[in-house]
Amino acid sequence: MDEPPVQKRLDYELTAAKQNTDFCQYPNQAYYGGQYPQQPGYNPNYPPQQPGYPSGGFIPGYPPQQPGYPPQQPGYPPQPGYPPQPGYSPQPGFVQPPPGMPGAYGAAYDPETGSVKGFEFNDQSIRRGFIRKVYSILTAQLLITLGFITLFLYHRPTKLWVQNHPEMFWIALGVMIVTLISMACCGDVRRKAPMNFIFLTLFTLAQAFLLGVTTANFSSQEVMLAVGITAAVCLGLTLFAFQTKWDFTVMGGVLFVAVLILMLFGLIAMFFPGKTITLVYASAGALIFSIYLVYDTQLMLGGEHKYSISPEEYIFAALNLYLDIVNIFLYILTIIGATRD
């Protein structure tokens, strides 16, 4: 019989595809209500079936898993549904992960806790990494500050140059205020690298310069005494914050009010200068910022405390601790200076 028209042939193929029929293997399907005639040269056994391939034509869930496919390598851990291969020897401590769990070969799966030993990544590990990062940044800040203080104390040409250029003090003060407000009020500034490190570096350099200018008005013995006392106080308060069961993170509002009162007291002390009022003001300031150091440390620790700071805020946490230490140092230095002859 003659071939059907081309358009009719295309319509037939489209209809066969929509009905999910195997056109290549079953060309004699129903064709518009009639039987399509067998074509000259048609071989129903072509292509020949491969060894091991299931007979019966189309099977739901095709392609079926063939015996031994994919080929297992010698020594490879057995997968679910595969027999152990020759030469495979389980490693000590290896437990086959349950079905549906991502493989963790070489690690031991604990069915009681549902975790894989050696691959744990929980909140505690994140918090420990956050604390290490904060104290690393804080250590770098304190070393820069100590370097500036030492330079202004023991290098006389630098001290004389600063005294002859008072505008440097105001420039450093402006840089410190701008960078501090930017990091405190703008979340993107203190979270996105490298912008956060740039702003923190500028702030640290400006603050260290101001501290160097301030300590230049004191003797080296007084400054070193203040540095030693500050180091001892901060170390003791940090250990106390790590060990105590008291939750200082709930005292944020009280500490804020205390700082406001301290600022008003400082303004009043400017109009009534004297040794006694200076000692009272400096002592109150040292006490308030010592509590602030414990408060900020526990915010960083998180855990059982009511409030905690996000691990993304490592710049902000380091900035808080640095400001607490700097203020404690300044108030202790003021106390020492007020008691001198």
Would you write up a description of this structure?
This protein has 341 residues and is an all-alpha fold. The protein has a domain at 119-340. The protein contains ten helices and four strands, in the order αββββααααααααα. The chain has helices at 6-18, 123-154, 156-164, 167-185, 187-191, 195-215, 220-243, 252-271, 275-301, 314-339, and strands at residues 30-31, 34-35, 109-110, 115-116. The strands form two sheets. A two-stranded antiparallel ribbon has the order 1-2. Strand 3 and strand 4 form a beta hairpin. Helix 2 runs parallel beside helix 6 (195-215), helix 4 packs antiparallel against helix 6 and helix 8 packs antiparallel against helix 9. The model is unreliable at 20-34, 99-109 and 113-121 (pLDDT under 50).
Q: Secondary-structure map with pairings?
A:
Elements: H1 6-18, E1 30-31, E2 34-35, E3 109-110, E4 115-116, H2 123-154, H3 156-164, H4 167-185, H5 187-191, H6 195-215, H7 220-243, H8 252-271, H9 275-301, H10 314-339
Antiparallel strand pairs: 1-2, 3-4
